[in-house]
Amino acid sequence: MIIRPSAVALVFPWLILAALTYQAKDADPAEEPIPLTNVHAHNDYEHPHPLFDAMACGICSVEADINLVDGKLLVAHNPRETKPELTLQSLYLDPMRKRIGENGGRLYRNGPPIWLLIDFKTDPRAMYPVLRRTLEKYQDILTVWQDGKMRQGAVTAVLTGDHPPESLLAAEAVRYAAIDGKIDALDSNPPPGLVPWMSSQWSLSFKWRGRGEFPADQQQKLRQIVQKAHEQGRLVRFWGAPDNPVTWQVLLDTGVDLLNTDDLRGVQKFILARPRAARSR
Question: What are the structural domain ranges in the chain?
Answer without folding.
Answer: 5-181+253-278
